[in-house]
Amino acid sequence: MALRETGDAQRSRAVTVNGRRYALPTRTTAVICYDGCDPAYVEAARAAAIVPHLAQMMDEGFAAIADAAMPTFTNPNNLSIVCGAPPSVHGISGNYYFDEATGRETMMVDAEGMRAGTILAALAGAGARVAAITAKDKLLKALANDLDGIAFSAERADDATLAQNGIEDVTGLVGRAAPSQYDPDLSLFVLDAGVRLIEAGRVDVAYLSLSDLVQHSHAPGSGGANAFMAAVDQRVGALIAAGATVGIVADHGMNDMAHGDGRARVAYVADALDATFGPGRTRVICPITDPFVRHHGALGGFVRIHVTDAAVDPAAVLAAVGAIAGVGRVLPGAEAAAEFEMPPEREGAAVAIAAPGYALGAHAADHDLSALAGTRLRSHGGLAERRVPFILSRPLNAAYQQKTANLRNYDIFDFALNGVV
Ligand code: ZN
Ligand code: ZN
To answer: What pLDDT digit, counting tens, does each position of 102-161 carry?
Structure first.
């Protein structure tokens, strides 16, 4: 699908967003954020020969492993991908942060915390027809920030209106009603909507952001995981058949965090700190906490620690956190912000990153593990979930063949728009 020509010779054929230049697409371009798609899922599905379109992309286009932004959670990485920049630039470094001034935990999912523009909004502003479709409604406001185009969530697709979302009758478009928030079909609904819009020639650029519900409860190569991989692959094939250049990245990987007998392997950081310093003197924030706790119990591989009592020595807190079994790395908040390109004003005294195979929690009483319903805890957030697939349906041009070192997941729009033949 070619871009509509506006006849405006002055109209820019590229946009600059957060210091990077993006060409307006000459071919329809679809970028998929394959939520929680650890490279191991792709490898297992390829080995089982159930993902022919992904395999073809990897063989005939481009495939590499990229680093996700830290912490390896959904919101910071989705925003990094659409901003083409790390959290230090866009300002969102988790679902929740602790406001030391007010002593309140504040949700970071709305656009209010965002301090960078998106590639999507800029492309739309330059005349491209853009669609942002997300499985989870919690991401929509941020992805749709300043976007003049189509923007809706699968979760609330039935409520989409022309005025609010740039589209109506999504049910009619996709051919089925919007799935519930714990239905794996939520992700497939996103992809089907993208396929229909591109087949109908209604968009030039689509950002399709899935949910990691399946990966939280199914290991790579398992029946559930492979069935989902095959279902996604079918939609990827339809996007390519409709003429789209397809780029696929993940927001983070996913790892098992359970003991051999199936019990979750969790280090409860707040319980340990209360035992050392007394209750109420430190505050542990689990930035994975979100309305979708059912599949991970708000347990992930990364927590922030704030000292709420000035009499407590932050250095002693660092030492105490470092001594907890299951903490792989602990560093002062300011150092963590510098090393991992996170906004420093959201950091507290310390950041703790889980050792591989462990999850970090606050107090045991804060986390409802019964919600896991007997499945092994699988989650993300730390360095062990940083490696993600980076796949394009077309080969790289000569210039971008030289740019493949130190790939980040948020390079995907740069590569999909500027870097393929
Ligand atoms: Zn995610
Ligand atoms: Zn998740």
So the answer is: 888 877 766 577 899 999 999 999 999 999 999 998 899 999 999 999 999 999 999 999
> Measured between alpha carbons, how far is 138 from 247 in angstroms, rounded to an integer?
23
CA of 66 relative to ligand 1 center, distance in Å: 15
User: How far apart are the CA of 216 and the centre of ligand 1, in A?
Assistant: 10
Which of the two residues, 91 and 3, has the higher pLDDT score?
A: 91
Across the chain, what does the average pLDDT equal? 93
Cα 120 to ligand 2 centre (Å): 24
Domain 7-96+106-254+382-418 and domain 266-378, same fold? Reply is no
Closest ligand to 214 CA? 2
First to last CA, the chain: 16
Burial tier of 95 (Cβ tally within 10 Å: 0-12, 13-18, 19+)? buried
User: For residue 5, what is the DSSP state?
Assistant: P
Question: May I ask the CATH architecture of the domain 266-378?
Answer: 2-Layer Sandwich (3.30)
Q: Nearest ligand to the C-alpha of residue 409?
A: 1
User: Identity (one letter) of the amino acid at 216?
Assistant: H
Measured in angstroms, how far is the CA atom of residue 10 from the centroid of ligand 1? 40
Domain ranges of the chain: 7-96+106-254+382-418, 266-378
Residue 310 Cα to ligand 1 midpoint, Å, equals 35
Q: Looking at per-residue confidence, does 372 or 66 come out higher?
A: 66
pLDDT at 116: 95
Return the axis-axis angle of helices 52-60 and 39-47, rounded to nearest 10°.
Answer: 110
CATH number for 7-96+106-254+382-418 (one of 3.30.930.10, 3.20.20.140, 3.40.720.10, 3.30.240.20): it is 3.40.720.10
At residue 112, the pLDDT reads 72
Q: In this structure, which ligand is nearest to the CA of 288?
A: 2
CA of 214 to the centre of ligand 2 (A): 9
Instruction: Say how many Å lie between the CA of residue 60 and the centre of ligand 2.
Output: 30
Residue 26 has pLDDT above 50, yes or no: yes
Q: Which ligand is nearest to the CA of 257?
A: 2
pTM exceeds 0.85 for this model: yes
Tokens standing for 13? 């054929």
